[in-house]
């Protein structure tokens, strides 16, 4: 069975339910949900962090800088709540140099990086952009759609898990590309895809270890097996 075709068919069904307001919503972290609501103390924490970032960077446009940072952190928190211990925690370090465009690593395979892109806009028009430099650093792009316009006073945000793309499905032939929601894979398949990615990575290391062992390079074989 073609897993990509299956996830695209599920994505088409998801888009129809999104337009009609009939999304799957699970409150428990670590379980699949198409909708994640962020409010209360968690939202307060995000706002405080984003204002701290404004102070650190002394932006010429503090309001815009605050909103852009909040938009990004809302998306990261939404994804972390769905993947839970499967990935590293949201990074709240305030760095003058900014982040490295990798928002999460898999806890069992830190070589695998995930980037989260968060957008607000009309379902049929919103796009998620990614450039070649970002693609080179990550293995998976995860896209989030915010239903409410991001501002300083919004009491809660309904975060839609718009979909994901493995980087080997992203067009490398141009410097920057963009994807609409119907070009993404259904988010519900992400957890299974990550498990298969880890398994494939482990098998690669075992094969490398076997080859080193056959060549009597035992030290390198141990490194690969570990």
Keywords:
globular, 5-stranded mixed β-sheet, 6 helices, single chain, alpha+beta, 226 residues, two-stranded antiparallel sheet
Give your account of this protein's structure.
This protein is of the alpha+beta class and 226 residues long. The protein has one domain (3-190). Helix content is 43%, strand content 21%. It is built from 6 helices and 7 strands, in the order αβααβββαβββαα. The strands form 2 sheets. It has a 5-stranded mixed β-sheet with strand order 1-6-5-3-2. It has a two-stranded antiparallel ribbon with strand order 4-7.
Secondary-structure blueprint of this entry?
Layout: H1 3-20, E1 35-39, H2 40-57, H3 62-83, E2 104-106, E3 109-120, E4 127-131, H4 132-137, E5 140-146, E6 156-166, E7 176-180, H5 190-214, H6 218-225
Parallel strand pairs: 3-5
Antiparallel strand pairs: 1-6, 2-3, 4-7, 5-6
Given the helix and strand composition, which structural class is it?
alpha+beta
Number of helices: 6
State the distance separating the first and last CA atoms. Answer: 33 Å
Give helix and strand order, one letter per element, not per position.
HEHHEEEHEEEHH
The tally of beta strands, per DSSP, is 7
What is the overall pLDDT average? 88
DSSP strand content: 15-25%
Largest sheet: 5 strands, mixed
| Biggest β-sheet: strands ordered side by side in the sheet | 1-6-5-3-2
| Backbone shape | globular
The number of domains: 1
Work out the helicity level.
40-55%
* Unreliable runs: none
CA radius of gyration? 19 Å
């Amino acid at each position: 069975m073609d897993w990509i075709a299956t996830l695209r068919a599920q994505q088409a069904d998801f888009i129809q339910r999104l337009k009609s307001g009939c999304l799957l919503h699970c409150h428990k972290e670590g379980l699949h949900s198409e909708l994640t609501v962020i409010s209360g103390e968690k939202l307060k924490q995000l706002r405080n962090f984003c204002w701290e970032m404004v102070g650190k960077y002394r932006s010429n446009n503090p309001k815009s800088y605050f909103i852009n940072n909040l938009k990004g952190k809302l998306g990261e928190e939404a994804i972390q709540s769905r993947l839970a211990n499967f990935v590293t925690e949201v990074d709240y370090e305030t760095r003058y140099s900014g982040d490295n465009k990798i928002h999460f690593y898999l806890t069992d395979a830190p070589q695998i990086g995930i980037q989260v892109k968060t957008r607000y806009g009309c379902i049929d028009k919103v796009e998620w952009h990614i450039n070649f430099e970002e693609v080179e650093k990550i293995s998976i792009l995860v896209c989030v759609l915010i239903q409410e316009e991001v501002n300083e006073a919004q009491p809660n945000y309904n975060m839609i898990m718009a979909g994901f793309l493995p980087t080997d499905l992203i067009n490398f032939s141009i410097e920057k590309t963009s994807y609409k929601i119907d070009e993404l894979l259904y988010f519900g398949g992400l957890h299974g895809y990550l498990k298969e990615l880890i398994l494939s990575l482990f098998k690669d290391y075992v094969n490398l270890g076997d080859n080193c062992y056959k060549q009597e390079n035992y030290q390198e074989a141990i490194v690969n097996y570990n």
